[in-house]
Amino acid sequence: MKKVFIDTDVILDFLLNRDPYINEITEIIEKCVTGEMTLCVSSLTISNLHYIISRIENKKSANNKIRKILKLLKVENVGQTTIIKAMESEFGDFEDGIQNYCAEEADHKVLVTRNTKDYKKSSLAIMTPKEFLARPDAARL
Among the four 20, 24, 55, 118, which has the fewest Cβ within 10 Å? Predict the structure, then answer.
């Protein structure tokens, strides 16, 4: 079973039921539930999700949604080397650098995000959820 790294924005689409993106991430989540792949996020994503959801909704809702999503996802750790690589990288956005190097350090080959332009400096295969679903081999990269 292959691992696929999912960026924060895509998980937010799922947790906040955001149109028009909800259908694509739901289809990806279903592939995870059926065992076709393991979906992974960084530990930074969990922090970001909690912060954003608690601002939009409330802390209780954020806690509940994170409890549920943790049953579906594997969390990859962000460590000191990840932070250093992100700081020293050419990524314009520090958080995107952290996501990228967390995925790299955990041996991911694919990073799914809606913000593909932010990952031009990445050595990973960067795909939108739609692109990912259109490639039957994407989870095997």
Answer: 20
Is pLDDT of 18 > 70?
yes
Q: Give phi and psi for 39, each to the nearest 5.
A: -95, 135
Q: Residue 3 — φ and ψ, nearest 5°? A: -100, 140
- Tell me, yes or no, whether 140 lies in a domain: no
- Tokens standing for residue 98: 């952290």
Nearest to 39 by CA among 76, 68, 13, 86: 76
pTM above 0.85, yes or no: yes
> For residue 17, what are the CA distances in angstroms to 23, 80, 126, 136?
9, 33, 23, 25
Tell me the C-alpha distance between 35 and 58, whole Å: 32
Distance CA 62, CA 26 (A): 19
Domains identified in the chain, total number: 1
